[in-house]
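1st attempt posting a full record on here, be nice pls
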Amino acid sequence: MEKIPTWQLVVAAALQRVDGAWLMHCRPDHKHHGGLWEFPGGKVESGENPRVALVRELKEELNIEVYPGDLLPHCFAEEAVDQHNQPIVILLYTLRIWTGVPVIMEGGALDWFTPEQTRLLAKPPLDIELAAKLFQKEQG
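the predicted structure (as tokens):
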């Protein structure tokens, strides 16, 4: 019988300003994927649904308030099953309405980018996939 892996569910948000720019977070150098740019978010904790987890993560990471209904499901990306670690599935939501000004709360850097600039950023593999899907849909 095939052993089914335990997946780690992660949620992320693609925040878009009125001018069309997208927010990206550069991970602190000392963390996994340090120095790479990603969509902000984090792990879904036990007992949380994805939207509630993302509201919590955006408050912790960016100090913004988000209404769960404003998070629009967009796409997902998943790691290949690997015997040596817990595969990750990232659910990406788009967000165009929030309260407060995003500021970095847990280290690293934040900045706003056009889709073209975002494509050129060094990103972890799953964020590369998410950005490609996000901006493919934006163009189409």
